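Appendix B. One record, verbatim.
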Amino acid sequence: MANFKTLKCLSFIGFLLAAPILWAQPAANVQVTAASCPSLLNHTFPRLQDEKPQSLCQYSGKVILVVNTASYCGFTPQYKGLEALHDKYKDRGLVILGFPSNDFAQEKATNQEIADFCESTFGVKFPMFTKTSVTGDAAVPFFKQLAQAPGQRPKWNFYKYLIGRDGKLIDSYNSMTGPDSRSLVQAIEKSLASKPS
């Protein structure tokens, strides 16, 4: 009986000694993940379809094209070109992120209406987020950061920001620059050719 109690005691002591190591593991992993996420991408937004929080850190190492969108704009047909870009380059590491915005009074009332419109009208498959303020004092921090680097805030719908694999802004493009624009496509291809750091 004494031997059994001794064994139990030793097992418990062994557990206590090992516990700090076990508990420290997840914390270390979290720190590595956080450290590997560029500050520009260290933001979370609700997904358009179901409003589940999505961290932009998941796109670290990819080339990202950020676009503020709207359903009732003269540039709304750009959705088709954006989806074509997404389809052509997604396997090489491009991701397009759409941020519907009513800052220019041309967006639908609800997130569900926007989601239905994007899918049924243009077959949008690239990631879309819920309605977002992208300009002025009400702009979310992500768009404020995007505007600081090139010194340009979105002046209308379908403004575009190209982010490299290193998580740094490469350039911004106004609404007149379509998804099939030669300058934009060349910049995307050049960025895709670079290796993640």
